[in-house]
Amino acid sequence: MALDALARKYGTPLYVYSATHIQERFDLYERAFAAAPHLICYAVKANSALAILALLDKRGAGFDIVSGGELERVLTVNPQAAGRVVFSGVGKTAPEMDLALRAGILSFHVESEGELELLAERAAKLRKRAAVSMRVNPDVFAETHPYISTGLREHKFGIDIARARRVYRKVKEHNWLEARGVSVHIGSQIRAAEPFGAAAERVAALIAQLRRDGHAITHMDLGGGLGIDYGAATEFDAAAQMERYAQQLLQAVSKVPDITLLVEPGRFVVAQAGALVTRVLYRKKNGEKNFVIVDAGMNDLIRPALYQAHHEIVAVTPRRGAKKVVADVVGPVCETGDFFARDRELEGVREGDLLAILDAGAYGVSLSSNYNSRPRPAEVMVSGKRALVIRRRETMQDLLAVEQGWK
Ligand SMILES: *Cc1c(COP(=O)(O)O)cnc(C)c1O
């Protein structure tokens, strides 16, 4: 079904995803790493829709989670998938650890000594064995937005790679813990392949050292973070990007015998599969500045406001020969930061027209909120000729249902 028909049927703002695109991107990963034992662990936080998790689960994906809630989502889709789950994040709580211990996940990616102590305590209490990978901070710089860069010593993530051996020795002191891997994640939306290679080399060297220290390391998790091109969606050569990336990783992996490679892609798999369809409410002019006011807001897609991110915006039904306009595309939320584009050239947009904000499949809905008491948009998955609502539009009743104590 075409976007305008979907917008008519389900209203706007509306998130629309292509199942085929997600499958293709996942398969690109599978093919690129076919030469090595591997598990592609989709980073659930990029887009945690059950329909997307189910689609990837059917293809044998693993999952990278950062909360107990994300684990519950994965288990909802397939309780058997627990054995393919890795648990990242700097602030795991005891109840979240218990949930993951009981489910029997593949690996805890431990980010501090305090967390290691708590995990040891919970595992002993529940009498559940836990496979542990320390998330090391490789001190590698990667060019990306400061908010999504994570691989430098000054960031809150991981433990200093120089201290890693000492922390692994501590793992040995705990009966219910086993050091099985090393993990690293240097950031998100990284376009160059070299920083991934540099981090992988450091992890490979550490694994060799840890094995000499007597740890039975079986997996090497090189994180997610492979970027896409938000500027030129149609020209982005995903296959070439993947090839450069995989080559860097596999080169490091080849130096480590008997190892399973784990990667944790989020954005690369789902970002370009999704668009946010929105309707133009008003056109207006303040001084010399043109504004296109749309019915989607920063609560639906916060990336421009949060990361100064660029999203291409196109007319769903272009008006041929219409006069071009340079305008800010803004939402109805009462914040100056509520914009999707600034000084963007658009083809003659009129009130009532539909616009598609492209590459919104990752960190769109998963970062959305109800700010300004705005119910979240519906989400639709297109699969061949079929379009399926995978999350209905929220209602005000949904929002009010959890409130109490005011009467
Ligand atoms: C966010 C995150 C990912 C996914 O990052 P992308 O840039 O979406 O690929 C993978 N691993 C960890 C630990 C993360 O925090």
Strand content: 15-25%
Count of helical regions: 12
- Shape descriptor reads globular
Number of domains: 2
Cα separation of the termini: 46 Å
Helix content: 25-40%
What's the CATH C level of the largest domain? Alpha Beta
* Total E-strand runs: 18
Task: Give an account of the 3D structure.
By secondary structure, this protein is an alpha/beta fold. It has two domains: 3-13 and 272-392, Lyase, Ornithine Decarboxylase, Chain A, domain 1, CATH 2.40.37.10; 89-263, Alpha-Beta Barrel (TIM Barrel). It has helices at residues 3-10, 19-32, 50-58, 68-77, 94-103, 113-126, 164-172, 194-212, 238-253, 267-270, 303-307, 396-400, and strands at 14-18, 38-43, 62-65, 85-87, 107-110, 130-137, 159-160, 177-183, 219-221, 260-263, 274-286, 289-294, 313-315, 324-330, 339-347, 354-357, 378-383, 386-391. Strands 1, 11, 12, 13, 14, 15, 16, 17 and 18 form a nine-stranded mixed beta sheet that branches. Strands 2-3-4-5-6-8-9-10 form an eight-stranded parallel β-barrel, surrounded by six helices. Strand 5, helix 6 and strand 6 form a beta-alpha-beta unit. The site of pyridoxal-5'-phosphate has 19 residues, from helix 10.
Keywords:
407 residues, alpha/beta, Lyase, Ornithine Decarboxylase, Chain A, domain 1, TIM Barrel, 2 domains, eight-stranded parallel β-barrel, 12 helices, 30% helix, binds pyridoxal-5'-phosphate
